[in-house]
Each structure stands twice: as structure tokens, then as C-alpha cells.
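During the reporting period, we have paired protein sequences with C-alpha cells. One record among many follows, to show the layout:
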Amino acid sequence: MAVRWWSAVALILGLLLAACAPAGPAGPQRITLKMEEYRFDPATITVKAGQEVRLTLVNQGKETHELMIGRELKTENGRPAGFHQNFFEGITVKAERGGKAIDVRELMEEEEEEHGFMVVLEPGSEPVTLIFTVPADKAGEWQMGCFENDGAHWDLGMQGKWIVQP
């Protein structure tokens, strides 16, 4: 009888300890960001430093749209043109389209490379997934923006927040 009682106590203690143990590493955070005239959906995205992110971009609009994430709005000839601080600087980004790896440079307009990392999607194009891990030094609030048509998309409200929690 005493053996059964101790077995029950050991089982209960084991279950309690397992419940209190720290969780294992979380899987990737999967986010779908829809782009259309002239907004991002969702307009605010929150990610966690140290976590892998799988960000799928879908252009549901009738125009070309781009995604840039950064801080400190940059202007050229008085028009919004990107950010002075590029969120993706120093981050290794992989990309997939249709479940197959692609070169991220395929997603950028050549003449825009000096503006920092961006993804440009034509209307009706297949969605693209960016895969990256958010570094701890990127904690804080960033902005998302589309600067197509010499910044007109930004001016028309194609802006959002990208928040990195520590």
C-alpha cells in the first residue's frame, strides 16, 4: 500500500515539475502581410527578438507595391523615398516563392538598392515568404512603408508599424 502511495506522489510531483519547466524554443512566427491600395493589412506587426520569422507578402492590389522597414524617413527632392535606418541591415534573409528558395535580389528593383533592403511585388504575382531571425539589437518600434510612384503610396497612407519586443 505504501508503495502505491509513494508512486502516486512521485507521479504528481513529476507532472507538477514538468508543468513548471521552461518551454522549449518556440517555432517560427508566421505572419501574412497583405499589400493593397494604399495600406498594409495588418497595419501593425509585433515580433520577438531572437525568434525566427516567416513573413509572407501578398500583393492583393492592382498596382506594384513594396515593403521597406526602417526608421527616420528619408526624402529625395522633397518626396518620401525610404528610411535612413534599414531594419534588415546585418540580417541574413532567405526568400521562398511557391515553397522554393529564391535569391532575395530577385525581389528588389536594381535602381533602388541604395535605399536598403526592400521587396517589390507586381500585382497578381505569387506571394513571397521572407525567412529571418530578429536580432536583439533591433528591439523597439520601426516603420513599414511603400514608396512606389515617387513616394505617393506612402503619402496615401501605405504605412505601418513593425514592433520588435525584447
Q: What stands out?
A: The helical segments are 2-20, 152-155. The two ends are 51 Å apart (CA to CA). The first helix runs from residue 2 to 20. The mean pLDDT is 86.
